[in-house]
Amino acid sequence: NAGVMQNPRHLVRRRGQEARLRCSPMKGHSHVYWYRQLPEEGLKFMVYLQKENIIDESGMPKERFSAEFPKEGPSILRIQQVVRGDSAAYFCASSPYVSETYEQYFGPGTRLTVT
Amino acid sequence: KQEVTQIPAALSVPEGENLVLNCSFTDSAIYNLQWFRQDPGKGLTSLLLIQSSQREQTSGRLNASLDKSSGRSTLYIAASQPGDSATYLCAAYMDSSYKLIFGSGTRLLVRP
Q1: CA–CA separation, A96 vs A102, rounded Å?
Q2: Mutate to test the interface with B, among A36, A50, A100, A102 (most CBs of B within 10 A)
């Protein structure tokens, strides 16, 4: 059973460009979570999605950021008009619909650098 | 609002030493607590998950304890090795919630 997959692993964008980060959850997992880790900081929750639904986006910046988890395909975190402050590691996690432990399984992350 | 704090922020020990990493949380209404390891520039490796009904979990040289009443968790590493050098993160799952609240981590260096 492959783990959570994220791509690309590294992404470089110039200021003003768009960044698209992809996350494929573990097989059988229908819940996806995105976290951001700014340099020298801990991970911060951004958004929680189920298939075709955004459940909680309370951690998402109000502007330029959006997320989706379509019926088919990976979850996408989209950042429009990137700025230097968006440079961070973005981690995706997934969990099954029913889990006694509610444990989330993390991907390797995408490291975004904005130049 | 739940806050998770890790002390110390950094720790340097000689190889072979036993050590304890501390994690405290402000809201005792946590569901589970999980310890992760993060190597520089890498993802998260899950070490131990302690469910709310449990007091501790063990895996090899690692032992994690959870005391909800005092708002504390500790990660004990026995006979430390240079390969244990990494940042250790604790994270709390809140009751009726799916959000993981992370601490800022303890950066561990084990000197040969």
Answers
A1: 8
A2: A102
